[in-house]
Amino acid sequence: MWRRPVRALALVVFLLATTIAAVPDDTVAEQTCKAAKAHREVGSLDRAKTLYESVKVSDGDQQCAVEGLKLVAKARQDAAKRVTAGQLLIRSGNLTGARKKFTEALGFDAANAAAEAGIARVTDLSSRPLPTAVSNGDRFYRDWVLPLGRLVGLAVIGLLVLFVLASLSSRWLVKVDAVAWPVWIRRITGSLGALLLLAAAVMAPLFAMFSPFTPTWTQCRIGALVLALVGLGAAGLVFAGARRNTWERWRVLLLALGIVTVTGILLALLVSKPSKPIYDVRLMFVCIALAAIGVLLTAAAFGQNLRLQVEVQEADGTVNAASSDYLLARMKGLGTETPQSLHKSTSTPGSTPLSQIPVEELSVLPAGKVVGALTRVLFALRPDRTWRARVTFVDDDRLAAALFRNGRHAASAVFSRPDLWLPTDNQKDPAKAQMLTCAAAFILTQLSEVHEELQDGLYGARQWKSVALQVIASSKSLLADDENRVATRARLLAKAVDTDPGNELARFEYLWVAHEHTPYEEMDFHAFARAIDHQYDLSRVKEVFDDREGWMPLKIRILYSSATQWLNAWIGGGTDADRAAMLTSARDSAKELDRLCDTGQVSWKSKELRRLQAAMHPHARVLVACLDAVQDTTTAGGRAGNATAQHSHEDGPASPRLAYDHACLHMFTAQRRNLKADARRQEWEYAIEDLRHALVTEKDKKDAQGDPCFTELRSDRRFQELVGTQPTATAATPPDGSA
Fold it and tell me: Degrees (nearest 5) of the Cα angle 339, 343, 345?
């Protein structure tokens, strides 16, 4: 009976032993990882990486393979660091230390070609004689100049390619009618975009040539964070620059920024398996995304530039260099000609420029078919050349103008002399100049619709025909100098106001020209001054602040005209109350004029405006002095009887026009109460002296003959000789019976 239990026990022992023998010591994954570890420890990183990547989920725990791949990557990075250190030691001359570093690198990565090349280099240098100046120079050229030269060359080429991409992208990102952002936002956007493009152009060859680092999860997270911040900042600039009701015109730019940012972040963070082919270069996706954002920002900033290139061509398509240069000058100098004035006592010694375009923003297409064609190609590739205007003469009376923004058609117009109510001119050149002036007005008004900083210089005008007619009517060179000139000017200015009632400059020019043909003896100065002030009160000119520099030339002209007209009206007489009101109005205008022309009180940025300020300040001071003299004339007491005459300009007049104003001042001073007879007579002498310097042309003499300021001088023989009238038999004497 005891044999059965023994047999059963033996069978159990046999089965247990068989089962234990069938169970392996390790899983397949662990065995593979152990084999890969052995290869990794001896520096066979490629074989170790292959074994780690061969581990499958079905083989067991895959975590050892993941950790192993990380160790392989770390070993490559450690080897690269030691290779870099060895190269630096070679340059410093420490060959022993360099060999040690290269050997350590081979211990980490036995197949590291750079380490093997480094050891070969050390061996070669050790077999050579001591270094000389020539060998050091060769080594410097080979180790520094060549690599840096290649790096800089590739970076420059890459930067040019990125800028060309930005130029080609601007036509899709910036709509032709999109209002340009404020200048400071455009500058920030362009600077950020250029910085990103520069970084991308430098990093691409740097990473390819030197492999400065292997991307880790920490670096990828930092890169994704930087990309997110740059993307949000770029979107914030778009929303800050665009108006609330026009931001949808930038939806393509916003959509592109969003897609690029999100894609770059996802590619940098979601590729987690080392077996993926893009695992080792995932940080490059962040760099590519940042470069794409740089292209978008640069395209958006440069696509809103004010850079303008003009071209004038004949009907056969040939470029007319002279007409192109004239149009270019007109684009900058529109309205800067001295305005056709009234009489000297009512005119304004200043111009009213319309164009606020800086000189550096303008260029002209060179003449010549080959040069012109090359320039057009360059224009298409340059991201900073935004606008291009092409003007074509169909014939002597018709002209076509087309305006392009970023290579896309923005506006065009066809106009003729009859459509613009221009007078018939038998001379071809002045007629062509008129048409080119119209083209300049068309281009300028179209630019002002998207570049709002130009609108101040147009004084409220929105219609280019109104601007063109006003400029032609106010110019001395664009209208024939005949007996119909005044009537033609009045007709053109009336058409300008009818076409665009918001053109403040045209309205005031029309008001001034309406009184130009009126003789002095028939002019109602009181009504004229009242009309100027009424128009000024209704206009936008009175409400603008000093920082709106584009409006200031017109404001200066209006204030000067108002002050002089009220002063002339005071000379014309009236009740005491009326004359007191006239002086009050004149003083208000003169004080405001003096404030605007005083550099100590108002400082402007525009160079042209500062020049006008300097030129007008002496005239403003003379006006204030005239009113002070008149105040002494109308108030009791006044200056003491022993007062003496004072010359108003000890160093001589700066100009004939200023001398004319000083002559008026002396005549007002001569009317002061209680002024000594000798002093009064001396003021007359000073006035005659100034008039000798001021009265040169026949028109000057005619103006002085009718000027109310010189009413008391009209019977003076010296004055009569100056203005060319028939001398009287009896010489005039100053008031109060002085001889």
Answer: 105
Average pLDDT taken over every residue of the chain: 82
Q: What are phi and psi of 400, to 5 degrees?
A: -120, 135
Angstrom distances, CA of residue 117 to CA of 106, 120, 121, 135, 610: 11, 5, 6, 19, 69
Of 243-252, 492-501, 657-666, where does the model show the most confidence? 492-501
Element (H, E) at 275: none
Cα 106 to Cα 43, 86, 110, 694: the distances in Å are 7, 12, 4, 96
Highest mean pLDDT among 113-122, 266-275, 631-640: 113-122
Looking at residue 728, what is its pLDDT?
A: 61
CA atoms within 13 A on the CB side of 81: 9
Task: In whole angstroms, give the CA distance from residue 300 to residue 560.
Answer: 44
What are the backbone angles phi and psi of residue 239, rounded to the nearest 5°?
-70, -35
Query: For residues 599 and 609, what is the distance between their CA atoms, to the nearest angstrom?
Result: 11
Distances (CA, A) of 634 to 354, 573, 577, 673: 41, 12, 11, 8
What pLDDT was estimated at residue 20? 38
φ/ψ of 224, rounded to 5, equals: -65, -40
How many angstroms separate the CA atoms of 460 and 352, rounded?
Answer: 13
DSSP tag of 729:
S
CATH topology of domain 23-130: 1.25.40
CA nearest to 650, candidates 681, 595, 678, 690: 690
Contact in structure between 381 and 332 (CB atoms under 8 Å): no
Say if residue 474's pLDDT is above 60.
Answer: yes
C-alpha–C-alpha distance, residues 472 and 497, integer Å: 14
Q: Is residue 227 within 8 Å of residue 267, measured between CB atoms? A: no
Between CA 653 and CA 693 the distance in angstroms is: 8
Is residue 638 over pLDDT 60? no
CA distance 159 to 151: 12
The C-alpha angle with vertex 204 and arms to 198 and 206, in degrees rounded to 5, equals 100
Residues 329-336: what's their mean pLDDT?
A: 78
131: left (phi over 0), alpha (psi -120 to 50) or beta: beta
Q: Is the dihedral of CA 200, 206, 211, 216 positive or negative?
A: negative
Rounded to the nearest 10 degrees, the angle between the axes of helix 282-302 and helix 251-269 is 170
Domain range list for the chain: 23-130, 149-302
Report the percent of the chain where pLDDT is more than 90.
28
Strands (E), 344-464: 362-364, 387-393, 398-405, 408-416
Pick the more confident residue, 3 or 121: 121
Cα angle 457-458-459, degrees, rounded to a multiple of 5 = 90
- pLDDT at position 346: 47
- The pLDDT score that the predictor gives to residue 21 is 42
User: Across-strand partners of 398?
Assistant: 416
Residues 603 and 547: beta-carbon distance below 8 Å: no
The structure tokens listed for 416 are 């003729």
Q: What is the pLDDT of residues 29-65, one digit of tens each?
A: 788 888 888 888 888 888 888 888 888 766 666 778 8
Residues ≥6 apart with Cβ < 8 Å to 483: none
Residue 591: which pLDDT band, with cuts at 50, 70 and 90? very high
Contacts of 596 (CB under 8 A, 6+ apart): 546, 552, 555, 556, 559, 602, 613, 620
Q: Which two tokens stand for residue 288?
A: 């590519």
Separation of alpha carbons 645 and 637, rounded Å: 17
The rounded Cα 69 to chain-centroid distance in angstroms is 54
d(CA 363, CA 306): 11
Task: Convert the pLDDT of each residue in 603-625 to its tens digit.
Answer: 888 888 898 888 899 999 999 99
